[in-house]
Design a protein that fits this description.
The structure is a homodimer. By secondary structure, chain A is mostly helical. Chain A is built from 11 helices and no strands. In chain A, helix 7 packs across helix 10. The interface between A and B is large, with 67 and 65 residues.
């Protein structure tokens, strides 16, 4: 919990990074019972054991700290994706492997995942936007990965992207539900249901006709 | 906790209801830029133009007011579902009609829908639980409705429920995205993508084998 004191054995930049990490950890620790916009700078510095002055050496305000958390959370997600992609089992057994990867990730980074689920539609516009952008990137990369599957390789990129969005949404909602669950039975139930849903989604893949938009089939909705 | 104040022209219960409504409206009005747990009782009463004492005649605390908002939001959703069910066009053109219904609902009740999207995984446990329960009820009712479709009528109820959960999740995520969007083009794009996703999901329906769980196909995930 220390910080502002200079240890001779540690370099200044090391110690600066430790303070930054302490601030990020403190914010995550306060999140289970709060939304991000209800946490004050002073609560974060108190939890981290550093002074408000030290805070300002790292972030302009709590919003900027929130953006750093978004980056951290998606940084580890991207790493996870890269590892999963390198695993040859992924193409053989994509649904189970993807689910497994997300479950492990939620266990290891529960606080980050809670933060993402909470702030995706939360009270801070800049965080909502940053999370949306990151999820879009995630889905774009997934759409590229998906083109290795024969049934999907002939799809127009826009349709593959639509499919990737659906998978991403399903995975995000699984992660958000897992964070909320306290029992292993609850977790098994969530995983079982999501697995069935992903399987159902893939059953339609080779029947998809590009641009098969039911709008063309006489849609008369006027949304306004 | 009663309103013992006198309006001669209005009945006591009418005026009490008006205060309650003013408090609910005030909380909704504060939400676009705040999470629910960052709004104080005093901010709500100031916005509503009533005294904190008047607040306590209606709610024990802000959390209880939040629960009343959950009830209001899902009350209107249920009404919408009932109306949609009574419309014979629903079975002919279920995807477009359902989407249209949700879009109209989001336009009419933007603040309520924002509240649900925000607090579904928000900082207040009781609100998260109340919203989860309501969404479960919504999905249960949908599962019953879905049994009129020939392809789904033979499914075991648990599988129909899994399917209803997927539709519900897709609709909730559409509503949450619509609330965030500011342009008609953005709205069209969201609706178009969700329509394609729902179509893709339904393409697999008649290929589904009950209990078709990929777990049986040699799943070796160990989630822990």
């Amino acid at each position: 919990m220390t910080s502002r004191h200079r240890s001779r054995s540690r370099s200044r930049s090391e110690s600066k990074e430790l303070t930054r990490q302490a601030l990020l950890r403190a914010a995550l620790k306060l999140l289970p019972r709060n939304s991000f916009d209800s946490i004050s700078l002073r609560e974060i510095t108190r939890e981290a054991g550093v002074s408000p002055t030290a805070f300002y050496r790292h972030f302009d305000d709590t919003e900027e700290l929130g953006l750093a958390l978004v980056e951290e959370a998606f940084g580890s997600l991207r790493q996870m994706m890269r590892d999963a992609r390198a695993d040859p089992a992924m193409t053989r057994d994509a649904i189970n492997r993807s689910i497994e990867t997300v479950v492990v990730h939620v266990h290891r980074h529960t606080d980050h995942m809670r933060f993402i689920a909470r702030e995706r539609y939360g009270g801070v516009r800049r965080l909502r936007q940053a999370i949306r952008r990151e999820l879009e990137l995630f889905s774009e990369e997934l759409a590229i990965d998906l083109s290795v599957f024969p049934a999907l390789s002939a799809w127009p990129p826009a349709d593959r992207r639509m499919f990737a969005d659906l998978i991403t949404d399903t995975m995000v909602s699984m992660a958000a539900e897992l964070v909320e669950t306290r029992s292993p039975e609850g977790e098994d139930e969530i995983v079982r249901r999501k697995r069935q849903q992903l399987l159902l989604i893939t059953l339609g893949v080779d029947r998809w006709s590009p641009h098969a938009d039911p709008e063309d089939a006489g849609h008369d909705a006027d949304a306004s």
